[in-house]
């Protein structure tokens, strides 16, 4: 039976049971103006056993706007440190977030955290607030990632108020309630190593292992701390392969934004790529491209090395730590290949497939072909491939000249042409597609099975920047219908939703002008 009020939830507050060094207990700062619930997420509520009817109550709004504590919760802001853009940044912490408490739900324990909930001892120069624009983006992203089957924090509620927040311009204040089994970051460990407090580092490691990685204590695992590092490495490697496989860029992969659970955490200037650029930088502020799409996996490894060196303060066996990190690349490749075999519709990854994939990515890069559609449109190639290359010049004679195209690549069914439409050099794309078709035929899988499997790996809808922007603009007018539409669509991005073709289209020209920066 679902709880119909927050009052009926059972709280456990395990993080708050740690020594007070780890946090500061304090209440959120409510807005000056009356808050309005823009959207609440029934799917996230279900995780904590909260009935959808509870989301419409004044009691719920009071909690998710920071005006009232979570019943049974222990409200606090946590301290952590981190490396930002490769440089040690010292102490950071929840500068605009409050952990409301931890709920024991039917689907495990979930921490509820407000973001944009006012100043804390860790705010430094910040105002403790978040703007509507970035809050809508964070709210949507958690559910979009979850819909794609990628580990992530979830979003429970989005609240807005008329309070003014000064960024480059004056903007509207908003608050997101996020959920995760834990918000502990790599930087939470770095904090105690830098503070030369191995005792507290040990306390934190024990806490994380006991609650989230109990298997690390099993006999035969060797040092639990090294086992923890190995498992975090493995999860992080898989996460990177997940991100890359959907064209996702995080934008600010600082160690304070790296989840110890391998979740996608802290959605700021993230982006799902439209036209594929291997070196795509989604964060306008990241001028050096430190967090470009194609370096995310190696940056994650660098971040893991920072975590390892923090853990060294409590794990003197350097070889064990090094061995734990060594598993990273193999875990990444294994998951990347599995993901890519799925996207290409191959029964299993074979060594020669690397070249096939690289060549596709190169063609996509050269044409800035739409990332999502390039993969989605592979599904019809084998059945629509023009069987034999026609003599040179035939296409031109038929009035289908595509810049000296040879081999009659304008033949083939509509799906074949729709794939080629994504590329500037159609001839090169067609030559690749013929190789691809040959490879697919080797598997000998029935088309129906193959296509069904491909549609579970290649989303039709992703949270493109322009879609998020439309939702933001509507939200600014008090209209949450676009948020609702996107939440529904992105929860199941694999199958075609009738009447939603516009949401599957490549970005319109105006989207190129959108600049997403760290400002939030
Ligand atoms: P981020 O880059 O968003 O992950 O934030 C890095 C650090 O800055 C974290 O410690 C945040 O809590 C803090 N921070 C970001 N924005 C604000 C703000 N408006 N007010 C207070 N602290 C902030
Ligand atoms: Mg952060």
Which features characterize this protein?
3 domains; binds magnesium ion; globular; 13% strand; 13 strands
Sum this structure up briefly.
This protein has 520 residues and is α+β, with helices and mostly antiparallel strands. 39% of the residues lie in helices and 13% in strands. The strands form four sheets. Strands 1, 3, 7, 8, 9, 10 and 11 form a seven-stranded antiparallel beta sheet that branches.
Characterization of this structure:
The chain is of the alpha+beta class and 520 residues long. The chain folds into 3 domains: 10-183, no CATH class; 187-344, no CATH class; 353-455, no CATH class. The protein is 39% helix and 13% strand. The chain is built from 17 helices and 13 strands. Strands 1, 3, 7, 8, 9, 10 and 11 form a 7-stranded antiparallel β-sheet that branches. The chain has a two-stranded antiparallel sheet with strand order 2-4. Strand 10 (154-166) and strand 11 (170-180) form a beta hairpin. Helix 4 (186-194) runs antiparallel to helix 5 (198-212), helix 6 (224-245) runs antiparallel to helix 7 (296-311) and helix 16 (465-476) packs antiparallel against helix 17 (481-491). It starts with 9 loop residues before the first strand and ends in a 29-residue tail after the last helix. It binds adenosine monophosphate and magnesium ion. Magnesium ion (MG) binds next to loops.
């Amino acid at each position: 039976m679902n709880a119909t009020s927050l009052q009926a939830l059972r709280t456990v507050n395990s993080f708050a049971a740690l020594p007070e060094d780890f946090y500061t207990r304090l209440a959120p700062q409510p807005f000056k103006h009356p808050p309005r619930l823009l959207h609440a997420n029934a799917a996230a509520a279900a995780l904590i056993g909260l009935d959808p009817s509870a989301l419409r109550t004044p009691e719920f709004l009071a909690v998710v706007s920071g005006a009232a504590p979570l019943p049974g919760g222990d409200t606090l802001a946590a301290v952590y440190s981190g490396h930002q853009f490769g440089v040690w940044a010292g102490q950071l912490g929840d500068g605009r977030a409050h952990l409301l408490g931890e709920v024991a739900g039917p689907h495990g324990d979930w921490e509820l955290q407000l973001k944009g909930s006012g100043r804390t001892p860790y705010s430094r120069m910040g105002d403790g607030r978040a703007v509507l624009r970035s809050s809508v983006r964070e709210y949507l992203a958690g559910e979009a990632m979850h819909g794609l089957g990628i580990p992530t924090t979830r979003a429970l509620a989005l609240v807005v108020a008329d309070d003014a927040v000064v960024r480059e311009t004056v903007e509207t204040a908003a608050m997101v309630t996020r959920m995760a089994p834990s918000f502990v970051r790599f930087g939470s460990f770095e904090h105690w190593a830098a503070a030369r407090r191995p005792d507290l580092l040990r306390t934190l490691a024990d806490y994380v292992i006991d609650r989230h990685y109990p298997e690390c204590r099993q006999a035969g695992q060797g040092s639990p701390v090294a086992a923890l590092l190995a498992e975090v490495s493995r999860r992080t490697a898989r996460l990177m392969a997940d991100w890359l496989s959907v064209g996702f860029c995080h934008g600010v992969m600082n160690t304070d934004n790296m989840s110890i659970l391998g979740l996608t955490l802290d959605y700021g200037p993230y982006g799902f790529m439209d036209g594929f650029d291997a070196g795509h930088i989604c964060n306008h502020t990241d001028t050096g491209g430190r967090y470009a799409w194609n370096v995310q996996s190696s940056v994650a490894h660098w971040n893991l090395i920072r975590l390892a060196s923090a853990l060294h303060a409590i794990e003197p066996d350097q070889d064990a730590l090094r061995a734990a990190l060594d598993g990273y690349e193999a875990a990444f490749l294994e998951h990347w290949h599995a993901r890519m075999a799925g996207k290409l519709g191959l029964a299993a990854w074979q060594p020669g497939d690397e070249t096939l994939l690289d060549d596709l990515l190169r063609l996509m890069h050269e044409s800035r072909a739409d990332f999502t559609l390039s993969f989605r449109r592979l599904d019809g190639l084998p059945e629509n491939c023009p069987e034999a290359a026609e003599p040179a010049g035939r296409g031109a004679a038929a009035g289908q000249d595509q810049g000296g195209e040879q081999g009659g690549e304008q033949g083939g069914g509509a799906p074949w042409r729709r794939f080629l439409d994504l590329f500037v050099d159609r001839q090169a794309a067609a030559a690749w597609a013929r190789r691809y078709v040959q490879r697919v035929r080797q598997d000998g899988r029935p088309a129906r099975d193959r296509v069904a499997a491909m549609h579970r790996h290649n989303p039709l809808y992703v949270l493109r920047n322009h879609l998020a922007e439309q939702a933001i603009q509507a939200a600014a007018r008090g209209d949450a219908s676009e948020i609702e539409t996107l939440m529904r669509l992105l929860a199941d991005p694999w199958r075609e939703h009738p009447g939603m073709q516009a949401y599957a289209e490549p970005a319109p020209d105006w989207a190129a002008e959108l600049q997403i920066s760290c400002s939030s």
